[in-house]
Amino acid sequence: MIKKKYIPTPIVEKKKRKKVKVVENLETRRLSTLYVIWRFLVYFARIQYRKFTGKADVQKTATQLREIFEEFGGFWVKAGQILALRTDLFPQEVCDELRSLQYEALGFPFHIARSTIESELGAPIEKIFESFDEEPLAAASIAQIHRAVLLKKKKKISVVVKIQRPGLADAFKRDLDVIKIFVNLLVSFNVAPYFRWEQFVVELEKTFKEELDFRYEAANGRRMKKNLKFHKIYVPTVYQKYCKRRVLVMEFIDGVLMSDYIKTLLSDRARVKQWDDENDVDSKEVGEKLFLSLLRQIFEDNLYHGDLHPGNIILLRKSKFVLIDMGSTGTLDAEFRRIYFNYINALSEGDFPKASDYYIRLCIDVPKANIPRVRVDMARGFDSWSAKSELKGLSYREKSLGGATQEVNQVTFENGIPANWTLLKISRSFFALDGSLQYLLPELNTFKILKKYNKEADRRALINSLRPNNIRASLQQLSDTFNQYNDIILPQLRQRTIAFELTVNRSALTLATILRSLSSILLIGGFGTLYVFLYQQYFEIIQPINVEVVDEVVRQLPYIPYLEWVGILIVGGLTFRVLLACVNILERKEFGN
């Protein structure tokens, strides 16, 4: 639970909040394939007419496309948001409009909400909740939100209840079927094959599956809460007992939505300054923490929030914040994460040719292009972004990490290099976060933040490697490596050699004797080192066996910090293990004994 000392004062009065309009009879949309085709044909005809008359307007084109998806509503809104990932294909204005897709959802009556809850949870609503606000707090294309209080004996728990819209599964299924038919027509006529329509459909089906089952969001919420605890970021508690396919119950957070903060900032900057002072909030500190956390989620946790738009961030006092809505999260396979990490590092170091190499590695199905020229063009694009990031007065977008990707997208498009959907989804996370950072960190310096993250990540990695469990795991991994060598590689080497009787290899035996002697000396020295370590760090352990003569000698030795001692002991132990392994290998018959 959030401590009371972190609950901020409101920034928007309750009476000024727009109430959700509730209608008794929700209309069921039925879009035919012919209507969809006709609507898009009219849209493209208008674009061509404006080009023909010399009145081309990219912003108007982008706005009209967003209006089409909003008119279709339902699953088309999700499809439009996925299309917004294709920054390599569409102009920035189009992607921005599709990212801002909003479906003005009407609320549904309380008796439907009650029916859904009781059907999913298998009990009357009065036996589950002590109180339940019949008026919805918010409504969207997927669900409607209500406030409630869980029925508990010892304490009252304020929660929000997310209830799926009635008939949503059937409506989304119809929309998805129409979209698939439309996509098949585009594929049949070979329209924009570079788009990789099959991957688009795969992403749609994944979204369809996860959006209609709130148990995915509940599972993501539990995992993110566990991870983000170490980031000092709060995630609402999910009450698993009450989470089903169409109902989700989680802790209510009494804070200020970032979206409300930004709206107020644009209309009344003085009010925001007053609120910041009242609640001890430093907007720059919040923005930096958000950026650093997202990098850590991607590279260290391997579970990142995929939709950090301002509506999913709640501000608290003392520059703390909460992340909500875990319906969209992402993970990366080990190889991709490693390459992407190297790409980000190369950018932060200003090594743009290397960054270009890694970016090309992240692409898939690279055609027979002039890769050296592509590499030079990409490096030039990164260099252009780097120069812009140091200038004052430029828009946030041009200086952001997403801006770096924007610079090279044109290069990949011109050379027919398909984008990687995984990379596009990561970019979506950064673009979504940009919606907040452009107001929190208007003078962003991406290089400084990336370098700060690398420094903090290295420190965390060092501390983590010195924990007893990880030390044991490292030693076990080293042992497993030697065992794999003996069990797998040696038999393969034997199979590829000519069979003959090996004679005694005197050099190998001599070397084995020397190494065994060294390991014995190292072992004796190890006991001495361990004694000094215990003397300096845990004297009470060796006090019963402490001898005055030895005490005089040890007291003359310089004091060594604890972490350095751990490093010395680890290196000594590994060296001893390696020497013994080498002795065993040299004394085997395969090597001449």
Explain how this protein is built.
The protein has 593 residues and is an alpha+beta fold. The protein contains 23 helices and ten strands. Strands 1, 2, 3, 4 and 5 form a five-stranded antiparallel beta sheet that branches. A hairpin with a 3-residue loop joins strand 2 and strand 3. Helix 12 runs antiparallel to helix 13 and helix 13 packs across helix 14. The longest helix is centred in the last third of the chain and has 32 residues. It starts with 32 loop residues before the first helix and ends in a 7-residue tail after the last helix.
Strand content: 5-15%
Straight-line N-to-C gap: 68 Å
Mean pLDDT: 83
Low-confidence stretches: 498-504, 589-593
Query: Sheet bearing the most strands, described?
Result: 5 strands, antiparallel
Structure characteristics:
593 residues, 5-stranded antiparallel beta sheet, alpha+beta, disordered C terminus, 10 strands, 7% strand
Quick summary:
This protein is of the alpha+beta class. The protein contains 23 helices and 10 strands.
Topology overview:
Elements: H1 33-52, H2 58-72, H3 75-83, H4 92-99, H5 110-121, E1 129-132, E2 138-139, E3 143-150, E4 157-164, H6 168-188, H7 197-211, H8 214-228, E5 247-251, E6 256-257, H9 258-267, H10 269-279, H11 283-301, E7 304-305, E8 313-315, E9 321-323, E10 329-330, H12 334-349, H13 352-362, H14 371-389, H15 396-399, H16 401-414, H17 421-440, H18 446-465, H19 468-495, H20 506-537, H21 539-542, H22 548-555, H23 562-586
Helix pairs in contact: 1-2, 2-3, 2-4, 3-7, 6-7, 9-10, 11-17, 11-18, 12-13, 12-18, 13-14, 14-16, 20-23
